[in-house]
TrEMBL record, chain A:
Annotated ABC transporter domain residues: 2-237
Keywords per UniProt: ATP-binding, Nucleotide-binding, Transport
A Pfam cross-reference name: ABC_tran
Protein name as it appears in the record: ABC transporter
InterPro entries found in the cross-reference section: AAA+_ATPase, ABC_transporter-like_ATP-bd, ABC_transporter-like_CS, P-loop_NTPase
UniProt source species: Marinibacterium profundimaris
TrEMBL record, chain B:
Protein name (record): ABC transporter permease
Keywords assigned by UniProt, alphabetized: Membrane, Transmembrane, Transmembrane helix
TM region positions: 49-73, 149-179, 199-220, 241-259
InterPro entries: Permease_MalE
MF terms in GO: phospholipid transporter activity
PANTHER family: ABC TRANSPORTER PERMEASE PROTEIN-RELATED, PROTEIN TRIGALACTOSYLDIACYLGLYCEROL 1, CHLOROPLASTIC
Domain of life the protein comes from: Bacteria
Any one cellular-component term (Gene Ontology): ATP-binding cassette (ABC) transporter complex
Length: 248, 260
């Protein structure tokens, strides 16, 4: 469903992506792992067209993302940003229901609010946060509001950029289950970036490891432990020694 | 090689300048075109009208009243040297309406509105809120830029009109209380002296300055670099650009309206 072919992106003289090839099938959950600063977030933003790749093709359902109606294209996506990216002038519920309050998916305000509160509940937040401003919430709560916003309009394709960082282990478990549920029950296609190996095992159908601007290894999560790939092994076991330099 | 280096630097500076002019022009054209094309965001427009127009009233009023008062004192003192003290009402009126009203209001708006627009949009850019808007199928040019530009276009001329009146009132107050002018005569002289052209030019300048102030805030905000430093640079750059452009536009518009 999502296909990246030879995608490159350079910022100044810093080549971040150097030819990323990746395929994500419809209704599956892909987890992207890789060191900090290797370009995982940049890769997701390239798919959404927030960053324009220098070279390469990105196809969704076989059509290039740069062609066609951009609004209709984006309406199929939900995205949780790494820093949550909540609109700080709007109360929490209006953040969550943002898409439902305007544009093609617009609904009556009361209904939108109800949906927002239901989504907040699913990410473990009580209804009383609905009328707070994002700045009044803790970092982990903001992250979960961002997650609720990403899933609010029930998009077909959902990107999660580090959904569990900053959460306690119990809440991380809740979020992992939620992501799995969205993929299995709602049939959504998900791409998740995470550094948390227990999350990887809980969420992933397939895993891709980004290193040095390319996908070093990709395959089903079950094969991850027997890959024989020294980079992947070092990463999943969190060893300081190995082919990946500790200072990058 | 070394002889040509200054030339090279000059060339680069000129090129950068031209490129910026080009980008600003394209940005302005896009912003204006979004004002006329749906979807519109009335709620955003309303809150911009409030913050840009209504909440600027105190600073505009205070600036105008003190300037008008000072102007009356100076004209009286200067006029006394030629036995021409009586021209105070006329010169205060013309000075406020033609030049000081629009310019001071414009500069106050640059300080108050441009800076806050730039800082707000730049912070949104830095914290990925602009990216989030886009992914939520909302065009930031329509949602953030168009309402602010339209609100400034509507309210700054009104602010200038109010500033003109308050400035004249300041001059009137000083003239009547300290300089022994007759209130009725003062008002009569003011009203009879001002022409339609004076008022029209004042409001037109207001519209132009409002446009410049809002556009510069939005442009520098949207072009902001990363991090807190990026926000700081965007804010500083927007106010500098707005102030200089307002003064330059004032010169041009004065030429257009008053050179014959
Ligand atoms: N807009 C940008 N301008 C310049 N450089 C950028 C930009 N966005 C990202 N980069 C650079 O690209 C590199 C990859 O960034 P990215 O955010 O994708 O990392 P990441 O893999 O998501 O890391 P992390 O796990 O820490 O979030 C970084 O070195 C960053 O400095
Ligand atoms: Mg990242």
């Amino acid at each position: 469903m999502i296909r990246m072919e030879g995608v490159t992106k350079t910022f100044g003289d810093h080549a971040v992506l150097r030819g990323v090839d990746l395929n994500v099938e419809k209704g599956t959950s892909m987890v992207i792992i890789g060191g900090s600063g290797t370009g995982k977030s940049v890769a997701l933003k390239c798919i959404l067209g927030l960053i324009r790749p220098d070279r390469g093709k990105i196809l969704v359902d076989g059509t290039e993302t740069t062609t066609g109606d951009r609004d209709a294209f984006l309406a199929r996506f939900g995205m949780l940003f790494q820093g949550a990216a909540l609109f700080d002038s709007l109360p929490v519920w209006q953040n969550v229901a943002f898409r439902l309050l305007r544009g093609s998916l617009k609904r009556p305000q009361a209904e939108a609010r109800e949906i927002a509160i239901e989504k907040l509940r699913r990410v473990g937040l009580k209804p009383d946060v609905a009328d707070k401003l994002p700045a009044e919430l803790s970092g982990g709560m903001q992250k979960r509001v961002g997650l609720a916003r990403a899933i609010a309009a029930e998009p077909e394709i959902i990107f999660f950029d580090e959904p569990t960082t900053g959460l306690d282990p119990i809440m991380a478990g809740v979020i992992n289950d939620l992501i799995r549920e969205i993929v299995v029950e709602m049939g959504a296609t998900a791409m998740t970036i995470t550094h948390d190996m227990s999350s990887v095992r809980a969420i992933a159908d397939n895993v891709a490891m980004l290193h040095d601007g390319v996908i070093k290894w990709t395959g089903p999560v079950a094969e991850m432990d027997q890959s024989g790939d020294p980079y992947l092994d070092q990463f999943i076991h969190g060893r300081a020694e190995g082919p990946i330099q500790a200072v990058r | 090689m070394t002889l040509l280096a200054p030339l090279g630097a000059l060339g680069r500076a000129v090129l950068t300048f031209m490129a910026t002019v080009g980008r600003v022009s394209i940005f302005a054209a896009r912003a204006l075109s979004h004002i006329f094309r749906p979807p519109w965001y009335p709620r955003e427009l309303f809150s911009s009208l409030l913050t840009i127009g209504w909440l600027s009233l105190p600073v505009v009023g205070l600036t105008a009243i003190f300037t008008g008062g000072a102007l009356a004192l100076q004209i009286y003192a200067g006029g006394a040297r030629f036995n021409a003290e009586a021209v105070v009402p006329q010169i205060v009126a013309i000075g406020m309406v033609r030049e000081l009203g629009p310019v001071l209001v414009g500069l106050m708006i640059a300080a108050r509105v441009t800076s806050s627009i730039a800082a707000e949009i730049a912070t949104m850019k830095v914290t990925e809120q602009i990216d989030a808007l886009t992914t939520l199928s909302t065009n930031p040019m329509k949602y953030l830029v168009a309402p602010r530009v339209l609100a400034a276009l509507i309210t700054v001329p009104l602010l200038v009109g109010i500033g003109d009146i308050i400035g004249i009132a300041g001059g009137f107050g000083v003239a009547v209380h300290s300089l022994d002018f007759n209130p009725a005569t003062y008002l009569m002289n003011t009203v009879n002296f001002l022409e339609t052209r004076d008022v029209v030019s004042s409001l037109a300048k207001g519209a132009a300055f409002g446009l410049i102030a809002a556009l510069m805030g939005c442009f520098y905000g949207m072009e902001s670099g990363r991090g807190a430093q990026g926000v700081g640079r965007a804010t500083k750059g927007s106010v500098e650009a707005a102030a200089v452009l307002i003064l330059a536009a004032n010169f041009v518009l004065t030429g257009v309206f008053f050179s014959i």
